[in-house]
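**User:** My hope is that you can spare some time for a protein that puzzles me. As I understand it, each token names a local backbone shape. I would be glad if you read both lines and explained how they fit together. The protein I mean follows directly.
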Amino acid sequence: MEQNNETVHEYFVLLGFSDQPRLEFILFVVVLVSYLLTIVGNSVIILVSRLDAKLQTPMYFFLTNLSFLDLGFTTSTVPQLLWNLKGPAKTITWTGCVIQLYVFLSLGSTECVLLTIMAFDRYVAVCKPLNYTTIMHPSFCKALAGVAWVSGIGNSLIQGTITLRLPRCGHHHLDHFICEMPAMVKLSCVDIHANEVQLFVATLVLILIPMLLILLSYVLIVQAVIKLKSVQAWRKALGTCGSHLIVVSFYFGTGSVIYIKPQKYYGYVDGKFLTLFYGVVTPTLNPLIYTLRNKDMKGAMRRLLRIEKI
């Protein structure tokens, strides 16, 4: 019965950056450009990885999954954000908020696991090159990708459902620009200490542990390269792992601050900009990093362009 009373308001008001109208126009342009670049960049990676025979490897299989994730990740929030930035209407329906919460949380969690799997792939490529094709068999790669997706969806169903069941006592003004879990929890009119502990545990599993595993992978990679005592080996390792390391730094750097650092230690405005970078800018940078720093990807794009010209 209480839940029914909670849903009298069949919408949420996303306050976002409404207290800074001049900033909203600038953000609208920046977010729109970033979203278009995200769509184009990730679509190119998916297309090139699928069409070029030389890119039918585990690395590009996982990269394709990452591009699909980034497309869904941004699409779950950016259209609504652009709609709210362009005019006075700042509302989102209850159904839209629920879908956004589940999708954003699901794809964000999946990406944490996928980036960890990609670090393992780089570890095997550098440290066990002779056994690489045996270990990273296509069926094993598909199973690893499946684990990433299932774990992300599972976390979303658990965390999202618990968050939505919290009583809000009629509160429907969300001090954020998306229906993100930490902001949704803040609407509750009951003690949320248990939820904060639960959020921390989930963060520990999906952010801190992956960060430690990725760090371990790169420590082992560095140790293996040091033993070779070769400048060429360093360059090859950097070319193999550099792009992934940059993406990991951006993604986990902002994500860990949002979900680990208590919001009382930074202003809501700071939290919004962190989420903006985490959810909008990072997916835009990923394809740029992987295409501009990746010789195989640039070579594949040139080969496809030659075919098109012919």
